[in-house]
Amino acid sequence: MSIFETVKAIRKTKGDTPAQILTLILLVIFLTSMFFTGALKLNDCPAEPFIPKWLLVMGIFGLLRLLVSQVCNRMVDDDEENCCQGACECMLEVFLFAWFVAGSVWVFRTYGDVSYTKDSENYCERPLFRFSFVIQLGTYILMGSSLCCCCMFGCMAAIMDD
Fold first, then answer.
1. DSSP codes of every residue in 117-129
2. Backbone phi, psi, residue 8, to 5°
3. Which of 23, 119, 136, 153 is most buried, by the most CB atoms less than 10 A from its CB?
4. Which distant-in-sequence residues (6+ apart) come within 8 Å of 57 by Cβ?
5. How many structural domains comprise the chain?
6. Which residue range is the domain that position 72 belongs to?
7. pLDDT value of residue 9
8. What is the distance between the alpha carbons of residues 162 and 160, in angstroms, rounded to a whole number?
9. pLDDT on residue 160
10. Is the CB of residue 68 less than 8 Å from the CB of residue 88?
């Protein structure tokens, strides 16, 4: 039995763990804050008008991705193949990745020139820009940490097999 089959079997018998529920709640709060920050500050960054739009769209589609995943997982039996669910999730993931890359370009391109004084040509409201910057930087740190952990566990597994 593979590790994925074991996890599926445990999840099927025990349901969601408190850690999974807490993670889901925190993710919903985070994505909702992205949505509302982008919506409320839509015209507050003339230096790069796409930054608030990036937050707004990322929040909406992130929430949609969670909703599709949760609803489909509750409705479809684990043994049943759902091609439509997989295709929807894949399209959403590809879109979210592409939108994240676009947001990276907009945020990091503006980083050196941004001004927090309203009279400036490169004005962007401080909380809006910093929130976007922290999201980008935090995501890159998490991706890098995850990659390092995967490599470390892969190397440990290879050593243990020998």
1. STTSTTB--HHHH
2. -60, -45
3. 136
4. 38, 99
5. 1
6. 3-161
7. 60
8. 5
9. 82
10. yes
